[in-house]
Design goal:
Layout: E1 5-10, H1 16-30, E2 33-42, H2 54-81, E3 88-97, H3 101-109, E4 114-118, H4 127-139, E5 144-147, E6 159-163, H5 168-176, H6 178-181, E7 186-192, H7 206-214, E8 219-224, H8 231-241, E9 246-250, H9 256-262, H10 265-272, E10 277-280
Parallel strand pairs: 1-2, 1-4, 2-3, 4-5, 6-7, 6-9, 7-8, 9-10
Antiparallel strand pairs: 5-10
């Protein structure tokens, strides 16, 4: 298996160059095609309007979203021009209301092997950035590679950390990451405070390690104690100590509503990670 169709969604011009540069690296490594959606978003949610003004307000908002989409399309084409002529890539400009964004992104993500997106939190990022990540993962059922602010350092990660908790989300992320795992110099299956009772109680991570080794992955298991208040803090420290180039983890093991209210390891990792994070649900 290899990544042959890469998708990225542009919602803010400032993040376009890094996203295209990273996607181009992965495309070159996998002989893949890059699809880019330049998304102009109508963020207005009209609750009421005076008689005769509603249509005008909606038209102004749509015109603004259309202009944003065209500007993003131009930024994407400029980023294409900075890459190798051998890059096979297409860009599509689209306009959507914020509430309809999920269906549009999910439709494209379903047919992508990997969706590459900028970190959805931080400077210049609005609610639509997180909505795009969630749409690709949950409705599109696609693995998502989220870039840190520094971008993608290596198309082929030398050292990869897998956050393993025996969940189906984590296993799906591992399967999605197999093309990268097989090329890595070392893969560390990391387990934090494994349960005393369960199918892996006597050999945490052993079955996953066996599966990966049979695929030719150079893997080892690392069991860590929860020495910090949050699991994400322990994981982040381990990623730094390991000098890892990529983190692979399942996303949103609990309900999305609980994650949105309380945070959770997924959001914490995306907010603080200094390396790309490959997630799946």
């Amino acid at each position: 298996m290899a990544y042959k169709s890469i998708l990225t969604v542009a919602t803010h011009a400032a993040h376009v160059p890094k996203a295209i540069a990273a996607a181009a690296q992965i495309c070159a490594q996998n002989d893949a095609h890059l699809d880019v959606m330049a998304l102009g978003i109508d963020r207005t949610q009209v609750g009421y309007s005076y008689v005769g003004t509603g249509a005008a307000m909606m038209q102004v908002a749509l015109d603004r979203a259309d202009a944003d989409a065209r500007a993003l399309e131009a930024a994407v084409k400029a980023a294409f021009a900075a890459e190798s002529p051998s890059l096979r890539a297409t860009v599509e400009a689209a306009v959507t209301q914020l509430g309809a964004l999920t269906d549009l992104v999910a439709q494209r993500a379903r047919f992508a092997d990997l969706v590459l997106l900028a970190r959805p939190y931080g400077k210049d990022q609005g609610a639509e950035a997180e909505a795009v990540v969630e749409a690709a993962m949950f409705e599109g059922q696609a693995p998502v590679l989220v870039l840190p602010e520094s971008g993608l350092a290596k198309a082929v990660p030398g050292r990869i950390v897998i956050a393993w908790n025996q969940s189906r989300e984590a296993l799906r992320a591992v399967r999605a990451a197999l093309p990268m795992l097989k090329q890595a110099d070392m893969v560390t299956i990391t387990i934090i405070d494994p349960p005393a009772h369960g199918p892996e109680r006597s050999d945490p991570g052993g079955m996953l390690c066996q599966m990966l080794v049979r695929h030719g992955v150079r893997a080892e298991v690392s069991v860590l104690a929860r020495t910090l208040p949050r699991v994400s803090d322990v994981l982040s420290r381990h990623v730094r100590d390991s000098d890892a180039d990529l983190l692979v983890m399942g996303a949103y093991g609990h309900s999305r509503f609980r994650e949105a209210i309380l945070g959770g390891a997924t959001r914490n990792m995306l907010e603080q990670s200094t390396v790309p994070v490959l997630m799946a649900h």
